[in-house]
Amino acid sequence: MTFRPLLRLVSDMIDDFEYAELDEYPRFNSVTSVTLGELVQDGYIDWSDGTWEFPKYSDEQDTQLKQKIVEHYKYRDIALIPVMMWKDEFLRTMREIMPKYIYLYGLVDDSPNLIGAGSEYYKSRNIYSDFPQTQLSGANSDYASTGVDMEFERIRQDSIADIAERLKSYDDVDLMIIKELEPLFSCILTMNLNAF
Predict the structure, then answer these.
(1) Cα separation, 99 vs 122, whole angstroms
(2) Is pLDDT of 195 > 50?
(3) DSSP labels, 28-51
(4) Closest Cα partner for 158 from 112, 108, 119, 107?
(5) Using CA atoms in the order 31, 36, 39, 40, what is the torsion angle rounded to 10 degrees?
(6) Confidence at residue 1, expressed as pLDDT on a 0 to 100 scale
(7) What is the pLDDT of residue 196?
(8) Is the pTM of this model over 0.85?
(9) Does residue 153 contact residue 168 with C-beta atoms inside 8 Å?
(10) Confidence bin at 15 (pLDDT 50/70/90)
(11) CA–CA dist 100, 62 (Å, integer)
């Protein structure tokens, strides 16, 4: 058989294939294991059932993080089999890393503009003494004739180029967590063509 008839045969097979059923469910085609997407689709991972709990900053952050984890690793095989072993490792890892990230979420909430601006706060006291007049402190018997307290704040706005340079290396807190989960997933993406 020459190449041209073989190409026509494959083309006819593709034309006859029904694609409608593929639109309903994504095909994961994992050859050696199970993908995270399959676990979610088949209901094994149900974030609301109470068995998938780990420390969280807030309910909103928790929902957003779980969605990002699924989106990031949806087509990746889990790295441990059986699935219960993988679940235990996932939850153990989340319990270990979340306390530091909860603190980081709090810092981000308190200082939402971490990249583009900064402020510096200064406070000082100038003391002048011509001759002993006024006692400053009873404990050490300091005297001064005049004293001036000064406070000021300097707000700095960075240039667009500086901000762009910082954004290249910036990962949001959710992505930092997702990167720490990398060892729980296989780094090889596989595809099964079902012997076509």
Answers:
(1) 32
(2) no
(3) ---SSS-BHHHHHHTTS--TTSST
(4) 119
(5) -140
(6) 47
(7) 43
(8) no
(9) no
(10) low
(11) 15
With residue 128 as reference, give the H or E element that holds it: strand 117-128
Q: What is the mean pLDDT of residues 19-47?
A: 77
Sign of the torsion formed by the C-alpha atoms of 70, 72, 74 and 80: negative
Q: How far apart are CA 167 and CA 30, in angstroms?
A: 35
Report how far residue 31's alpha carbon sits from residue 188's, in angstroms, rounded to the nearest whole number. Answer: 11
Is 19 or 64 the better-scoring residue by pLDDT?
64
Whole-angstrom distance, CA of residue 140 vs CA of residue 128: 17
Lowest mean pLDDT among 15-19, 49-53, 83-87, 92-96: 15-19
Length of the chain: 196
Q: Are 72 and 174 in contact (CB under 8 A)?
A: no
DSSP code per residue over 85-107: HHHHHHHHHHHHHHHHHHHHHHH
- Sorted by where each begins, the domain ranges of the chain are 25-113+173-196, 116-132+141-169
Spatial distance between the Cα atoms of 94 and 3, rounded to a whole number of angstroms: 53
Q: In angstroms, how far is CA 175 from the centroid of its own chain? A: 3
Torsion, Cα of 163, 167, 169, 174 (10° steps): 140
Tell me if 150 sits within 8 A of 125, measured CB to CB. yes
Say how far apart CA 62 and CA 56 lie, in whole Å: 6
Backbone Cα Rg of the chain: 30
